């Protein structure tokens, strides 16, 4: 979609790394972890950590995370996945409930901002 529509998945400007809204869509277009927000969130964070590494950043450099979640009742399972990656670092985190994402099978979309040295 990046080339078709004309947007960037990630931008590095100086020591600022921003990763745009990321979902659990796989390269073949299917949604990974359909029906399971824990699985989707882990998959998304793993994709984003790979992007951070490409920009010379690490998980400990993350300062802000914004989450768009279809069902706020999934917050405990989302938090379980989130904690596996970010609990030691405690970045800012905002979770916003939304009625729709790009595909009905997507349960969350996540943005990340990191600061590198």
Structure description:
The protein has three helices and five strands; from the N terminus they run H-E-E-H-E-H-E-E. The protein is α+β, with helices and mostly antiparallel strands and 117 residues long. It has one domain: 60s Ribosomal Protein L30, Chain: A (2-Layer Sandwich). It is globular, with a radius of gyration of 14 Å. It starts with a helix and ends with a strand.
In brief, what are we looking at here?
With 117 residues, the chain is an alpha+beta fold. It is built from three helices and five strands, in the order H-E-E-H-E-H-E-E.
Instruction: Report the structural category.
Output: alpha+beta
Task: Report strand %.
Answer: 25-35%
Question: What is the residue-mean pLDDT, rounded to a whole number?
Answer: 95
| Name of the top-level CATH class | Alpha Beta
The oligomeric status of these chains comes to: single chain
Tally the structural domains.
1
Helix content: 25-40%
The SSE string, one letter per element, is: HEEHEHEE
Number of helices: 3
Quickly list its features:
117 residues; alpha+beta; 60s Ribosomal Protein L30, Chain: A; five-stranded mixed beta sheet; 3 helices; 5 strands; globular
Please render the helix and strand layout as text:
Layout: H1 2-6, E1 10-13, E2 16-22, H2 37-54, E3 62-69, H3 75-86, E4 92-97, E5 108-115
Parallel strand pairs: 3-4
Antiparallel strand pairs: 1-2, 2-5, 3-5
